[in-house]
Specification:
This protein has ten helices and two strands. The protein has helices spanning 26-55, 59-92, 99-111, 117-139, 149-164, 168-175, 180-209, 215-226, 231-241, 255-264, and strands at 7-9, 269-271. Helix 1 packs antiparallel against helix 7 and helix 4 packs antiparallel against helix 9 (231-241). The radius of gyration is 18 Å and the shape is globular.
Length: 272
């Protein structure tokens, strides 16, 4: 395992940003806003899940994961803080986060299960989901074309760190003796909830802006999901790979993230 670096993002999120910060495109802005609304509670769940899972390991095994898990926690805690600042700006613009209450209820039900491997499995599945979204963002810059520079940096930094720590929860789950059946089952559940929730929140954001049923919005959505650089078109295969018995997250690379982090060290961020 490699050591994960905790970084301080060098942007100011206290200053307001434009309502359609993503290239003036209502749909792309609403979609990324929706994603951000899920992050603070989601990142905290990931942190808590890995902490609980690692605690159940024998001491010698726990020591082998300690450095990597601490790096994971540090990165996720930073993501939680940054997106909380971003979401505060969205709240000032009048948006309502309806995703977080639903996520909070599901997390409470999941935490009631005594076996911590289920929470770790859900974390591993979600981390794979965010990693393939991150890889798409890095390889298809059209998703953030024309975005406000501060926010463009924020999303690429977050994407790179998601790619960087994509294996941690997966490796912890395997070390805990989690079954392949439950690993795949949790991916199906996470896929159902994640896709449903992000679409519901995107629709609500667009409704708030009066952009929901406009032709330009529908056209942008169709292109974003199914066009030449479409999200669904390019992420389905790596999503499906998760169900292979031989799958490991490191099989899907991360070179683009490594390159961006190397090129922007000291300008977009610096190590804590």
């Amino acid at each position: 395992m490699s050591s994960l670096v905790v970084r301080r993002l060098l942007i100011d999120l206290e200053a307001p940003f434009e309502r359609r910060w993503n290239g003036g495109d209502a749909f792309r802005t609403a979609f990324f806003n929706a994603l951000s609304m899920s992050f603070p509670i989601g990142e905290q769940f990931f942190i808590d899940s890995l902490k609980s899972g690692v605690k159940t390991m024998p001491e010698a095994q726990r020591a082998s994961f300690e450095t990597e898990v601490q790096g994971f926690i540090g990165q996720e805690a930073t993501h939680r803080r940054i997106h909380s600042l971003f979401n505060d700006q969205l709240a000032r613009q009048g948006y309502t986060n309806t995703w977080e209450p639903r996520a909070r209820e599901r997390i409470a039900r999941l935490n009631a299960i005594k076996d911590p491997r289920h929470a770790v499995a859900a974390t591993a599945a979600t981390e794979h989901f965010t990693a393939i979204l991150a890889e798409h963002l890095l390889s298809h810059p059209q998703s953030l074309e024309g975005a406000e520079p501060r926010l463009h940096t924020m999303w690429l930094w977050h994407a790179c760190e998601e790619a960087e720590h994509r294996s941690v929860a997966f490796d912890v789950y395997r070390a805990l003796g989690g079954s392949e059946q439950w690993r795949r089952r949790w991916m199906r559940l996470v896929t159902l909830h994640f896709t449903t929730d992000v679409l519901r929140q995107t629709v609500r954001n667009l409704w708030h802006d009066g952009e929901l049923l406009r032709w330009r919005t529908l056209k942008s959505a169709a292109s974003f999901f199914f066009g030449e650089h479409g999200l669904v078109r390019h992420t389905f295969a790596p999503w499906r790979d998760y169900f292979k018995p031989s799958f490991h997250p490191q099989q899907q690379g991360g070179e683009l993230a490594e390159r961006w982090l190397a090129e922007n060290d000291g300008t977009a961020f610096r190590p804590v």
